[in-house]
Structures
1.
Amino acid sequence: MELWFTEKQTQSFGITAKIKRTLHTERTPYQKLDMLETEEFGNMLLLDGMVMTTERDEFVYHEMVAHPALNTHPNPEEVLVVGGGDGGVVREILKHDKVKHVTLVDIDGKVIEYSKQYLPSIAGKLEDPRVTVLVDDGFMYIAKAKQQFDVIMVDSTEPVGPAVHLFEKGFYQGIYEALKPEGIFVAQTDNPWFKADLIRKVQQDVREIFPITRLYVANIPTYPSGLWTFTMGSKTYDPLQVQKDEIPAIETKYYTPELHFAAFALPKFVLDLVK
Ligand code: SAM
């Protein structure tokens, strides 16, 4: 008997993955958590039935959340991650020697616990001495943080459930105030095929708050549509003004100095969302 997991990405379209076995499943106080062993993508974390990360393709997303901003800010010493309980973004951040301290704030400690247990290649750096892990609501945490961070990364779930407030203009205003005067923030902002309205709204909100606003893309096979976007808001530094030969050599599998710039070259139908 074959076992398949299907994520309905819209009411009438989805992806399906053949499953070897279910490793863990529980309803946490915030969301339904499933950890599956898949044939094609290794271990796979689901939250509320949506693919969060897989052992095989996680590097794309985690590198593309972390490296463009950290290679744009000249001295990213204090970094905050909102969400990111699987640890992948933290692992990438720690590749930058200039980073002195990373604070991770995830609302659900169970995500951290089971990512450590079943996704060690992703979560393995959460206990690094440069990392502080807090279990808290990122929306509330940001509201209290003032001018503390050089870079803030929002690695949240979709704008439903516990993450619903993490895509609102008030949250981005709070991020602006939590950043130091030359700070940069980046957030995952879903896909242009099924969430065009979300991207258009976020771009408009961020553009009204930050002097420099950019959108960039990456290919993530297990995410809805496979084309993923990231929104960057910057107070001072423009990612497209970085000197390519000043981008430090770090160990990656997707991000490169050339791709740092190419990722901001948008397909026409995506470009139209940001006009
Ligand atoms: N890469 C995935 C994506 O793009 O959808 C996100 C992965 S990461 C596991 C998402 C994390 O956001 C989850 O661990 C979830 O608990 C966390 N989260 C959701 N709402 C939150 C909130 N209000 N504050 C802090 N963390 C939150």
2.
Amino acid sequence: MTMTIPSLDPQSLIVILTGAGISKESGLDTFRCAGGIWAQYDLEDVATPQGFLRNPQLVHGFYNGRRAGLLDKEIQPNAAHKALAHLEQAWPGGVLLVTQNIDDLHERGGSQNIIHMHGELLKIRCEHCHTITEWREDLGLETVCGACQRKGGMRPHVVWFGEMPLQMAEIGEALQKCGLFLSIGTSGHVYPAAGFVSDVQQRGHGHCIEMNLEPTAGQSLFDDHIYGLASEVVPDFVQKLLATLPQACA
Ligand code: BJW
């Protein structure tokens, strides 16, 4: 496969948006692919505040299952997660990784500068006192908040439809100044993440590349496209991008 490598000032910031596709080869389901999560569950039931009010047990069961799945020993970061961590260590201008994923595979792959804009599966939040707690067990209506000692108010620390994604100001600032925007393994159906490419393009500079198994709905907004498995195209791209650095940086 031929791959266009942009000529990029080594001091420019790289912003990377990732979605469920990057974790697919680690064994986690995507949402909208055939047989994916939304083929098994109605998103209105499990990924909206209204669904949680209607049937909290169903929502807790949904996230308890996914949390247990994530903690399975078989689920490990793949070559794409690791390559992005390597890029973060080696790129002089800095890398901000914005993930829509609630798994912790980027952290386990070695990335440090991460924003989980849709929250984290291994954290829970108290709706009474808003304390966020790391959590690796099942969660339920009986779970007591370790901070305020009340029960019945604990929920997964995730962002459902209709809720505001996290750290939007920081993301917006980075999108305003990045030299390269990479979108990896996301279908581009969910906003505001799907609009990040337009935010970069509206500035009139900043190169945008889509990496996915196949063209997405927003493909025409990107300057370049790299199609293939994330575990193959991402390490290849990172290696080639780092090879453009002057010797003193590399
Ligand atoms: C591979 C691969 C491999 C596979 N290698 N690739 C009408 C118009 C516009 C917007 C709206 C509207 N009505 C409502 C809205 C807003 C709404 C929205 O976008 N709805 C759309 C459905 C229309 N958005 C919201 O409500 C958000 N909040 C919000 O907008 O607040 C107001 C606001 C205003 C202004 C500024 C800022 C905010 C909140 C969205 C919350 C989304 N939550 C979820 C659940 C989180 C917790 C959980 O995980 O359970 O987030 S939904 C789900 O979708 C999850 C994901 O993060 C998100 C994105 O999915 P993703 O990652 O793209 O996965 P897939 O499955 O769709 O795609 C996978 C891709 O990988 C595919 O393309 C494959 O080809 C590819 N792939 N294998 C490479 N091996």
3.
Amino acid sequence: MSLKSIAVLTSGGDSQGMNAAVRSVVRSALFHGLEVYAVQRGYYGLIHDDIRQMDLRSVGDIIQRGGTILQTARCKEFMTPEGQQLAADHLRKRGIDGLVVIGGDGSYQGANKLSKLGIKTMGLPGTIDNDIPYTDFTIGFDTAVSIVGDAINKLRDTMSSHERASVVEVMGRHCGDIALYAGLASGAETILVPEVPYDLDEIASRMKENFDAGKRHSIILVAEGVGSGHEIANEITKRNGIEPRVTVLGHVQRGGAPTHNDRNLASQLGDFAVRKLIEGESGKACGIVKGELVTTDIDKVVNSKKPFNMEMYNLALRLSQ
Ligand code: ADP
Ligand code: F6P
């Protein structure tokens, strides 16, 4: 049976570019003659039947905005089989046969469950963490990296004036990509990520030697998956007597206008998801691999771990001497 109507939702932690993805899904679906609905507050809205029909104008003036006009939620009720069944029933009752879920790893788990209940689902990778396998980049990651890079530039100014060290804690959950990409781009002296073991004795003595040799600042980027930036700073002080200032960037990394890369990625992936649903694919996650748009079984995606880019990590180490 051919697809007649689809819905779109955003779920989990928001990310910059989610609005651009919603706009792309809605306008692409309308272009292909589908009815399109929006679910408010992710899976919470599905369970509570908070669903409205969209038209071309519903997604006007949002491509450049951070956050998500559909809002998002972390919904416990949806974790139960009863919650998932209720969500599927609400879609069926309205004659909606396809669903595009824009979110991270957890949201994909939810999409996988709905797919197994017979809803034709497509996942779009919306998270700043870049922790989704089978896509090189997630929507929001590029913007988060830019925000961290800008913050480091600012910190470097004041650290150099005072000849200080700076520990910067960044988000990413269990993934070190935000720290890695922002660290390479901004020349951080040390990048600590959960994927690679580190030696605090070596880091502390290198920092001391560098300051003694005339270096005027030292930036240590800590991915939250490693632990707290404050703890790392304390451990460094214990070893070399230097007292790094600590900055926890927090949710600032999730806000603000998406970069043009994120808007373009979101626009491409949103349209791709709709076209793949129309072609009859479902239970898939959309991604970009080496510049090509691809779909992968969502079951496979949620049961895999994204490989860490060791080559890039080693490059960052070599260049930060
Ligand atoms: P993200 O999508 O950013 O990783 P979460 O991990 O909070 O964010 O997941 C978002 C939502 O997806 C959760 O609040 C829950 O409703 C749903 N979800 C997460 N994991 C599962 C699961 N194993 N089964 C069903 N639903 C899930
Ligand atoms: O997944 C996005 C993310 O910002 C992670 O980087 C971070 O660990 C988490 O969400 C923070 O969650 P919350 O918004 O619930 O504080």
